[in-house]
Amino acid sequence: MTALLKLDNATIRFGGLVAVNGVNLDVEEGEIMALIGPNGAGKSTIFNLITGIYPPTEGGISFKGKSIAGLQPHVIAGGGIGRTFQNIRLFNELTVLENVLIGAHTRGSWNLTGALLKLLPPVRREEGRLLELAIHCLSQVDLAHKAYEQACNLPYGEQRRLEIARALAIEPALILLDEPAAGMNPQEKQTLLTMVRNIRASGVTVFLVEHDMKFVMGLSDRIAVLDYGVKIADGKPEEVRANPAVIEAYLGKGATN
Amino acid sequence: MLQGFVNSIDPYFLQILVNIGIGIILALGLNIITGLTGQLSLGHAAFMSVGAFAGALLTLKTGTPFYLTLILSGLFTAAVAALIGWPILRLTGDYLAICTLGFAEIVKVVFLNLEITNKALGLTVPPPQTALPMPVIVLIVAILTIIASTFIQNSRFGRALKAIRDDEIAAESMGINIARYKVQAFAVSAFMAGTGGCLYAHFLGYINPSDFGFLKSVDMLSMIVLGGLGSIPGAVFGASILSAAPEFLRFMSQYRMMVYGALMVFLMVFRPNGLLGGINFTDLVLRKLGVRPRGALRNLEEKQ
Amino acid sequence: MFLQQLINGIALGSTYALIALGYTMVYGIIALINFAHGEIFMAGAFVGLLMVGVFKLNIFLAMACAMIFCMIMGVVIEFIAYRPLRKSSRLSAFISAIGVSTFLSSLALMVFGANAKGFPDQAFPSQQISIGDADISTLQLLIIGVSAVLMISLEFIVQKTKVGKAMRATSEDYNTAALMGVNVNFVISFTFALGSALAAAGGVLVGMLFNAVSFNMGLMAGLKAFAAAVLGGIGSIPGAMLGGLLLGVTEVFGVAIGYSSYRDAIAFAILVLVLLVRPTGLLGRKILKKV
Question: How far apart are CA A202 and CA A195, in angstroms?
């Protein structure tokens, strides 16, 4: 089985700081993979490398067997990688539905001419199709009933779910979730757990960064651990939990409780 | 018959009406790049100028029919905008704003020095030979601009622009090619400014590069901010008020511009989001008509 | 010839720099393009002219009066037109600034009329000094000297005093500075006062240099000074000085080699070119994408 996403010695430096240092990582098709590590370990930076926000200083990144290192973010997104953000980045002034419709951007093709010829059947058909896709994605995270609310008026947990719906509207092969459970109460987390499992069941590979250990252990097929920009472990949840390097770097405090 | 009707209107009043029409075209044009895409342009008068001179020269030198002139001057302005847009739209925020301002000053000074634009003397433009009277043409173009703006705002293209305005990083992560959309928005915006300029030139019959200075750009910006940034009714309203205000304040003669300036400050202090900012007109109209705005959505949900 | 033009350029550039400092300081602290700054400059010139012409004050006293007047004016403008908008969108505050600018220039038009007024000759009896083949006027030396003194004092205030430290903290991070007990309102007023004082001095100097003071002198000078601030990297004080000098010198040389009719475009052409190479100006900080 070839990896869907492959990081090969991926490295990025900001001035003197090596934020991500020679990380090798595979995400297999159809799995739920998690990336954990202490604050500032470089987890979000890895997501930013994958999605092209920062180009890697060294090393390669390939997706579906093709190199995507150094490509523009919009090209990478169009290639089938959707993502959410650690600090929620919704289009705040727009409605919930519009947010998801923007996520479905790459699924449409009519541009300026389409806008001016809005009333012609092919344009209307496409709009209808995008609308259906958007509603479908919203119902996947149970937000369809809030379609016409303004995004910034949603409660925090729902904003996180809206980000997931927006990323799903890309119809991605791989979805990157950056701390999806942050700020949620236990009940919301439980709902989210089911949603993420359903997303995987629908054929989307999931790669997530998360702080909540219970959430990660219960959800992931595999876990990679990052510390000071270096990958220190990689394996099944129980292997990672037993790994001495991980306990020292990260779980140490938790394990002594 | 139409001509007769137009002639029966008080010419002074007619002049104000045409000013409002042209104001609406210009304001909606600027609204595309500044209101919808969030890129502050402080030099939009330059595009008006390019359109005005392109139109005037087409009429004077080639005798192109007016309607074709109107479209060609818009297209030419859009091409100019796309050309300068490629390099400068990479800049962010106020750096972009000052660059557009600089570009506008350069255009003004170049036109003041070119032989073909008749230097500082400006150009006299003969009235166009058209079946429709000029005010009617302005009205039609203004309505077309309103329709086009509304269509753009609620389309895949317009959503991409709004996404760029709200959050560029999130927008590009959704697969939106930011550079391309910005240039396109700039070009559409300039097209409208160019046609507005062309109408202005032919209605007024005389243009001078100095007419399209920084203050003209500021006028356009004030229209969309006073009305409510990003709102089409806001832009129409702002353009109407500001095009007419100096005329209605005329009785105060010398105090006019002072009052105008003070009004701008007070309006901003008491309604910082513009007069019509934050009002959703589609919802309002639909509710008045008794249509539930969520009807379309319900049908879709039932289908699934 | 070269030296002559260089001195001309530096004299003109110092006045741009004086005005540009006000733009850059205000921008650094509240991210507002204080569009009325050009009108403060104009007001400074008029006050200086009145002091010299009507009250027969000596030029330095007149300049001091103009600076004090404009300090108060800057603080009042901020209080009325910008402070209520601090939490609103930046564009609203910008439009408000344009309103202030329109108001002030039309007020000046009403009070002083449309014609430009000159400084009386006895204001500063300028003499020509020959250095090599260059003829330099003592007025130019005065302009350069006064600008240098003012800029050094500004640098001292910003770097060495307590309020200067508060200014730097506020421009670094407005909210954190407020949390750490910096009286942000005072700092903002102080910044407006400082910037306005410099603009007033610039106004008096420019009024003498071109021997013309008029209601609309603020517009083009303001635009060019703003361009200078952006050229240097907006928010950066040394950047504004560098930008002002650079624009002044290039403008003078541009005119000297025969592009006098393009005078007003030169500054902007340079600005656009520099921004294309360095998108945040010469000394501006690089913006890192924060995700």
Answer: 10
Q: Per-residue pLDDT tens for A22-43?
A: 999 999 999 999 999 888 889 9
Within 10 angstroms of residue C51's Cβ, the number of other Cβ atoms is 22
Residue A48 touches chain C, beta carbons under 8 Å: yes
Q: Which two tokens stand for residue B15?
A: 């002049």
| Contacts with A85 from chain C: Cβ below 8 Å | 291
CATH topology of domain A89-171: Rossmann fold (3.40.50)
CATH of A1-80+174-257, one of 3.40.50.300, 3.40.1190.20, 3.40.50.720, 2.40.128.50: 3.40.50.300
Structure tokens at C15: 């006045």
Q: Report CA-CA distances (Å) from B33 to A27, A114, A226, B230.
A: 41, 18, 43, 9
* CA gap B265, B272 in Å, rounded: 10
Question: How high is the pLDDT of residue C145?
Answer: 95
As a whole number of angstroms, the distance between CA C271 and CA C229 comes to 10
- Residue A209: strand pairing partners: A35, A178
Q: Which of residues 203-242 of B touch C (CB under 8 A)?
A: 214-215, 218, 221-222, 225-226, 229
The neighbours of chain C, by the rule of 3 or more Cβ pairs under 8 Å, are A, B
Interhelix angle C162-172/C2-30, rounded to 10 degrees, is 70
* pLDDT (tens place) for every residue of chain B, 304 residues total: 677 887 788 888 888 999 999 999 999 999 999 999 999 999 999 999 999 999 999 999 998 999 999 999 999 999 999 999 999 998 887 788 889 999 999 999 999 999 999 989 999 999 888 889 999 999 999 999 999 999 999 999 999 999 999 999 999 999 999 999 999 999 999 999 999 999 999 999 999 999 999 889 988 998 998 888 889 999 999 999 888 887 777 777 677 778 888 888 998 898 888 888 766 666 666 566 655 444 445 444 444 4
Q: How far is the alpha carbon of A164 from chain B, nearest alpha carbon, in Å? A: 12
The ipTM of this complex is: 0.92
Of C95, C261, C279, the CB nearest to B225: C95
Which DSSP string do the residues of B42-78 spell out, in sequence order? S-HHHHHHHHHHHHHHIIIII---HHHHHHHHHHHHH
CA distance C38 to C17: 13
User: B87 vs C276: CB contact, 8 Å cut-off?
Assistant: yes
The partner residues of C131 in beta bridges, in order of sequence, read C134
Q: Can you state the angle between helices C184-209 and C37-53, rounded to 10 degrees?
A: 60
Instruction: Tell me whether residues B261 and C281 touch, CB distance under 8 A.
Output: no
Which residue does chain B place closest to A168, by CA atoms?
A: B174
Which residue ranges in chain C fall short of pLDDT 50?
none
Distances (CA, A) of A250 to A225, A232, A234, A243, B8: 9, 10, 14, 11, 85
Q: Does A110 touch chain C (CB under 8 A)?
A: no
Domain ranges, ordered by start, for chain A? 1-80+174-257, 89-171
- Give the best residue of C30, C94, C112, C289 to mutate against chain B (max B CB count within 10 A): C94
C268 and chain B in contact, CB less than 8 A: yes
- The one-letter amino acid code at A6 reads K
> Between chains, do C289 and A14 touch, taking CB under 8 Å as contact?
no
Q: Token pair for residue B186? A: 């700039």
Chain A residue nearest residue B152, CA to CA:
A115
Cβ partners under 8 Å of residue A135, min gap 6: A97, A144, A147, B297, B300, B301, B304
Per the listing, tokens 């404009």 go with C70
Residue from B218, B232, B231, B230 nearest B260 by CA: B218
> Looking at the complex, does the CB of residue B40 fall below 8 Å from at least one CB of chain C?
yes
**Which of A105, A146, A175 has the most B C-beta neighbours within 10 Å, making it the best mutation to test the interface with B?**
A105
